[in-house]
Amino acid sequence: MASRPDCLFCKLVAEGDHVHKAEGFVAIEDINPKAPVHLLVLPERHVDTFRDVGQFPAEEAKRMLDFVADAAREAELEDYQVVVNVGPGAGQTVFHLHWHVLGGGRPFE
Ligand code: 5GP
Ligand code: ZN
Questions:
Q1: Test site for ligand 1: of 9, 12, 15, 94, most ligand atoms within 8 A of the Cβ
Q2: pTM score, two decimals?
Q3: Catalytic annotation on 98?
Q4: Which of 16, 26, 45, 76 has most Cβ atoms within 10 angstroms of its Cβ?
C-alpha cells in the first residue's frame, strides 16, 4: 500500500512502537499525552484527513472502527473519548488520518 516517504505517521506505521496491531492498522502511544492513556490509531493506508475517509474501502473502514474499539479494550479502557481533528483549524497537525483514544481518568482535554 502506498506509503509517503515524507509522512511521519507512515514512518511510525512501518517502524513505530506499536501497542496494538492488526492487518492495516496500528496503535501507538501519543508522544505528548493529554490523558493518562492517550493512544493514536493509525491506518496503514495514507489518507490526509478524515474528510477523505471515503477513500477507504467499506470493509476496511468497518475494520478501522473495530480496531479503535479493540485498541481501547486492550488498554483496559471502558469509558473513553475518540477524537479526530479535521484540518488545521480544528487542531490537526499531522496530515495522515488518525484517531485519538483518550481515557484512564480526567482530565481528558
Ligand atoms: P493532531 O494534532 O494531528 O490531531 O494529532 C497529532 C498527534 O500526534 C499529537 O497528539 C502529537 O502529540 C502526536 N505526535 C506528534 N509527533 C509524534 C511522534 O513522533 N510520535 C508519537 N507517538 N506521537 C506524535
Ligand atoms: Zn502517511
A1: 94
A2: 0.95
A3: yes
A4: 26
Q: Closest Cα to residue 99, out of 35, 28, 18, 3? A: 28
- pLDDT tens for 39-65 read 999 999 999 999 999 999 999 999 999
* DSSP one-letter code for 107: -
Q: Calculate how far, in angstroms, residue 4's C-alpha sits from the geometric centre of ligand 2.
A: 5
Q: How many angstroms does the Cα of residue 1 sit away from the middle of ligand 1?
A: 22
Cβ < 6 A, ligand 1 pocket: 8, 28-32, 40, 85, 91-94
> Counting Cβ atoms within 10 Å, is residue 18 exposed (0-12), middle (13-18) or buried (19+)?
middle
Closest-CA residue, ligand 1 atom 20, reads 31
